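Researcher: Structure prediction, please.
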Amino acid sequence: MNKNNLHYIALLLLILLIAGISLANMQSVTVNFLLVQFKLPLIILILLCVLLGAFVMNLINFSKGFSLKRELKSTQKQLEEAKKEIKTEEKENN
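Model: Predicted structure follows.
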């Protein structure tokens, strides 16, 4: 089994766990958010919280990926400069 398959299996198990917890909590709850108060089923509240958490994690991973790409480009540029210096030194020594 490769890493992607394990990732999909873990994701499926997580979804099933969330669905099971949600189905066990079908009653309506009152939500107080800032100055607004509303009722909705607990299943919807749980799923919204999970989706919001996933969205926030994707934003965090996106920003980390962006900084890693920038660092990779910088490192590749340094490597190319070092290769050019080595070639120049080899030509001078020959």
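Model: The mean pLDDT is 85.
Researcher: Thanks, that helps.
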